[in-house]
Specification:
Largest sheet: none
Oligomer: single chain
Radius of gyration: 19 Å
Number of strands: 0
């Protein structure tokens, strides 16, 4: 009997959920002119992906290759669900990581990165060398640089902050706003764990770092301390 855990069945189920109104509101998610937005609420895509979380990785790769954005959201969601599962073997976690890196050309928007990088990449690298993240941080492609910093959210959750601060500093003056925002989120989260270390970084860089990064990084500060750092930026 042929398995129903394949890309064709996923696409059929996905198309049944399409909405023209949602398609219009989600048009900003298209990565380029070749992207197609069906118009499906992300919660519905995630729920469908959870049904298909046992999909073989060769079928997941077919989802990644599809021009429909929600198909790729489904692909990275399946990868994320597998990476999160305690039942997933180490060998499969490596396969998920390898697929993510090998097909990063299809994980090419901020939402696809954010949906999968923390567990698929960060979770796999947690007890391994993080050299791959520093290589990604030097990439000419924004999504790859975003993966570098977003992956460290997993480390921060485990109380491991070193790579988050190092990579945030490496990427601090990136030209892309989407990197500025991701840096700010990572620094805010890391600062919740170690406020002193965050303030040391801000003492060094607040006057010259992108304002959006600074605003996100200081979001959990009291008003007096936050205003102090924001004013350093104004005075620069």
């Amino acid at each position: 009997m042929k398995s129903t855990m394949n890309a064709d069945v996923f696409l059929k189920r996905l198309k049944a959920l399409r909405s023209p109104a949602v398609a219009k509101s989600h048009s900003h998610l298209a990565s380029d002119k070749d992207d197609e937005i069906l118009g499906i609420r992300m919660g519905q895509v995630f729920a469908l992906a959870k049904e298909f979380m046992s999909m073989p990785l060769d079928e997941v790769e077919k989802l990644l290759e599809n021009p429909i954005h929600e198909m790729r959201v489904g692909a990275v969601s399946i990868m994320d669900f597998q990476a999160r599962s305690k039942k997933t073997a180490v060998s499969r976690r490596k396969e998920l990581f390898d697929l993510y890196i090998r097909r990063h050309d299809r994980i090419n928007t901020w939402d696809l990165v954010d949906r999968s990088a923390p567990y698929v990449v960060g979770g796999y690298l947690f007890d391994r060398s993080r050299k791959a993240l520093y290589k990604l941080a030097k990439s000419k492609k924004m999504p790859e640089r975003r993966t570098a910093i977003v992956s460290t959210l997993y480390f921060i959750g485990k109380g491991d902050l070193d790579d988050s601060f190092r990579l945030a500093e490496i990427l601090l003056h990136d030209k892309e706003d989407l990197i500025h925002k991701a840096n700010g989120w990572a620094l805010r989260f890391a600062g919740d764990k170690d406020r002193k270390r965050l303030t040391q970084l801000l003492d060094k860089h607040a006057a010259t770092m992108p304002r959006v990064t600074l605003r996100y990084a200081t979001e959990h500060f009291d008003k007096k301390l936050r205003d102090h750092y924001l004013n350093l930026k104004k005075a620069a």
